[in-house]
């Protein structure tokens, strides 16, 4: 038989095409090793999921704020306004206060430094606090600042700082959101129960303060659920003979009275009155803490630490490491 060259080519062509098609069809088929690959990719997938869960957890833990639950967001906000100034015990005071405030729902901490600029110490403390906060600063004018040698009662303290917080609140409050303002000094001791009392303030609420005014406590006197006077020994004729820690003001009232502020020139003991006089009358005060029979805040004052050894060592050039923050 005579084999035509053309036929050889045709057969060769057909065989190659069929071979090629077979090879192509095989590509999509599973091979023996697929099972291994599949379980490996499942494992990677599971690990990736775990990793992202852990990353979220880490974000939450490192987060600047704890995430409020919806029920918490419905509560009136408590704005705690804290004036503060640099001194040896400042960090200790602020750590203690911030960790109390962490337990309070829907709270916004306004910290106002009595300083020409925000300090690193307070900035870092706030950033790591997990609290919702606003950080402000304003320096008390020199002529109004207490000198080291002055007795501590000579000049009112934290006045411009609280006024700056009032200004911030009037400019930045969330429209329509109910809120209460409480002036929480950095050195007092606060029961968590106090904040439950503060939260329901309609205009101005009041309660006793422990360890103040040379007494075991000072308190508003209540009859038929109305404030009728004050139990106090020092300057009882003041319009509102109360400590700063003994009242809270509804933000609405501060917005309705945009001029109300603390008076830098207020006579000793009259600072609280200088604000309250332009806001309420005594009959309008809302008594809290079981008709003002429970002490839930204490006017504690921290002793100034003695630095005798530190100073002696410093003179010898052996003072403590200044890079360690106290
Ligand atoms: C009492 C009241 O409890 C204060 O609320 C009130 O401001 C003060 O009297 C006053 O008459 O001015 P006291 O314990 O004697 O308080 O005052 P501090 O606790 O020394 O100061 C009150 C707040 O102001 C604190 O938060 C403190 O850190 C801050 N402060 C104090 C400054 O911001 N700058 C200062 O130079 C001193
Ligand atoms: Mn104090």
UniProtKB/TrEMBL annotation:
Transmembrane parts of this sequence: 7-25
Presence of keyword Cell cycle: no
Keyword set includes Nuclease: no
CDD domains for the chain: GlcAT-I
Reaction(s) catalysed (UniProt annotation): 3-O-(beta-D-galactosyl-(1->3)-beta-D-galactosyl-(1->4)-beta-D-xylosyl)-L-seryl-[protein] + UDP-alpha-D-glucuronate = 3-O-(beta-D-GlcA-(1->3)-beta-D-Gal-(1->3)-beta-D-Gal-(1->4)-beta-D-Xyl)-L-seryl-[protein] + UDP + H(+)
InterPro entries given in the database record: Glyco_trans_43 (IPR005027), Nucleotide-diphossugar_trans (IPR029044)
Chain coiled-coil ranges: 37-64
Domain of life of the organism encoding this protein: Eukaryota
GO CC aspect terms: cis-Golgi network; Golgi membrane
E.C. number: 2.4.1.135
SUPFAM superfamilies recorded: Nucleotide-diphospho-sugar transferases
Binding-site residues, Mn(2+): 187
Active-site positions on this chain: 272
Main location: membrane
Pathways per UniProt: Protein modification; protein glycosylation
Annotated positions for site Interaction with galactose moiety of substrate glycoprotein: 218, 309
Residue sites binding UDP-alpha-D-glucuronate per the record: 83-85, 114, 157, 162, 185-187, 299-301
Cellular compartment(s): Endomembrane system; Golgi apparatus membrane
GO molecular function: galactosylgalactosylxylosylprotein 3-beta-glucuronosyltransferase activity; metal ion binding; protein phosphatase activator activity
GO terms for biological process, alphabetical: carbohydrate metabolic process; chondroitin sulfate proteoglycan biosynthetic process; dermatan sulfate proteoglycan biosynthetic process; glycosaminoglycan biosynthetic process; heparan sulfate proteoglycan biosynthetic process; positive regulation of intracellular protein transport
Keywords: Coiled coil, Disulfide bond, Glycoprotein, Golgi apparatus, Manganese, Membrane, Metal-binding, Signal-anchor, Transferase, Transmembrane, Transmembrane helix
The family this protein is said to belong to: Belongs to the glycosyltransferase 43 family.
Protein's name in the database: Galactosylgalactosylxylosylprotein 3-beta-glucuronosyltransferase
Organism for this UniProt entry: Podarcis muralis
């Amino acid at each position: 038989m005579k084999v035509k060259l053309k036929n050889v080519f045709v057969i060769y062509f057909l065989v190659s095409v069929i071979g090629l098609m077979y090879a192509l069809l095989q590509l999509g088929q599973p091979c023996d090793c697929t099972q291994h690959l599949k379980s490996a990719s499942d494992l990677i997938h599971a690990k990736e999921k775990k990793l992202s869960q852990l990353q979220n957890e880490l974000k939450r833990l490192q987060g600047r704020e704890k995430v409020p639950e919806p029920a918490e967001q419905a509560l009136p906000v408590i704005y705690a306004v804290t004036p503060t100034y640099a001194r040896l015990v400042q960090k200790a005071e602020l750590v203690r206060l911030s960790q109390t405030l962490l337990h309070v729902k829907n709270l916004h901490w306004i910290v106002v430094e009595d300083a020409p600029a925000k300090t690193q110490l307070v900035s870092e403390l706030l950033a790591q606090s997990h609290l919702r906060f606003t950080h402000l600063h304003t320096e008390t004018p020199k002529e109004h600042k207490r000198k080291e040698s002055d007795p501590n009662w000579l000049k009112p303290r934290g006045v411009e700082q609280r006024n700056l917080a009032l200004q911030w609140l009037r400019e930045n409050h969330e429209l329509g959101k109910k809120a209460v303002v409480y002036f929480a000094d950095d050195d007092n001791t606060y029961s968590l129960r106090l904040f439950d009392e503060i939260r329901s303030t309609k205009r101005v609420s009041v309660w006793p303060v422990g360890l103040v005014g040379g007494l075991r406590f000072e308190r508003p006197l209540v009859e038929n659920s109305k404030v009728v006077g004050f139990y106090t020994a020092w300057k009882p004729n003041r319009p509102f003979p109360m400590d700063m820690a003994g009242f809270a003001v509804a933000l609405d009232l501060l917005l309705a009275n945009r001029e109300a502020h603390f008076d830098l020139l207020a006579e000793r003991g009259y600072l609280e009155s200088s604000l309250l006089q332009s806001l309420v009358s005594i009959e309008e005060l809302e008594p809290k803490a079981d008709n003002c029979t429970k002490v839930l805040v204490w006017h504690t004052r921290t002793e100034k630490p003695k630095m005798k050894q530190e100073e002696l060592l410093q003179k010898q050039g052996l003072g403590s490491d200044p890079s360690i923050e106290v």
